[in-house]
Amino acid sequence: VTLRNELQHVLEQGALKLHYQPIIRCGDRKIIGCEALLRWERDDGSFVSPADFIPLAEDTGQIIPISAWVLQQACEDGLKLRELGDFSMAVNLSAVQFNRANFIEALTHTLNLTGFPAKNLHLELTESVLMEDSGRAIKLLESLRERKFSISIDDFGTGFSSLSYLKMLPIDTLKIDQTFIKDVLSGEHDAAITKTIIGMAQQLHLTVTAEGVETLEQAEFVEQAGCHFMQGFYFARPMPMNELIALVEQQK
Ligand code: G
Ligand code: G
Ligand code: MN
Ligand code: NA
């Protein structure tokens, strides 16, 4: 069986799971929310990375039911987390999902169904998805904003989006790509890029999240540079919601 064939049955087999990586506030280093990350566990116990199966699912159309499942599951789990406080839930959106004509209706439907508050749902989009058809993207983002959703640009810095265009986008957060954070202490350029993105975000009144923080030194660097939030293996790896809830209960 090919991966493509296996993929057809993942949903009915319950082989997809969401893990959640904590997002930490700079300064007091408390968990303020999480990002939902999709996991596919195969029968033999091996895992397929979403980086490998999302493109395949986009190709076959499976991305539609998978994305719907992700949204609903993330909202349901997010509500459990919200019993402990005002936590946010970030979800990654695929290009195909964002480009569907009924994207906003589908999103609104899931929120109505679950009761998860739009303002606490952070929609992560990459620069390339937004650049494909920037006119349409601006209109969509404006209507998402009217509905109080929060928008983040994921993997920021890797997508060559023009800064004049960035200014026009109604977004809330820039997530600095982990490739910059990785070498922030060893590479002069990465340190400069990271500081520049943070400075620019502050000027544009956007919040900034540093991704891929793996060491204390990297955490201290981005905190000193004025970053707002961070995320990475130094704090925690993606984990099941019950483990995240236990972690949040400990930090009280
Ligand atoms: O968690 P991990 O490093 O394996 O994620 C690999 C890639 O898959 C990342 O680019 C991440 O944004 C993406 N990804 C993870 N979960 C989802 C999801 O639910 N939907 C989409 N579209 N992409 C996801
Ligand atoms: O594209 P996106 O930013 O959504 O991808 C998130 C991916 O990054 C997930 O696969 C997640 O497991 C991974 N990730 C999260 N924190 C770290 C980290 O500190 N180091 C590395 N190498 N990967 C990380
Ligand atoms: Mn992401
Ligand atoms: Na990212």
UniProtKB/TrEMBL annotation:
Record domain EAL: where: 1-252
Domain of life the protein comes from: Bacteria
Name used for this protein in its record: Bifunctional diguanylate cyclase/phosphodiesterase
Organism: Aliidiomarina shirensis
Source taxonomy: Bacteria, Pseudomonadati, Pseudomonadota, Gammaproteobacteria, Alteromonadales
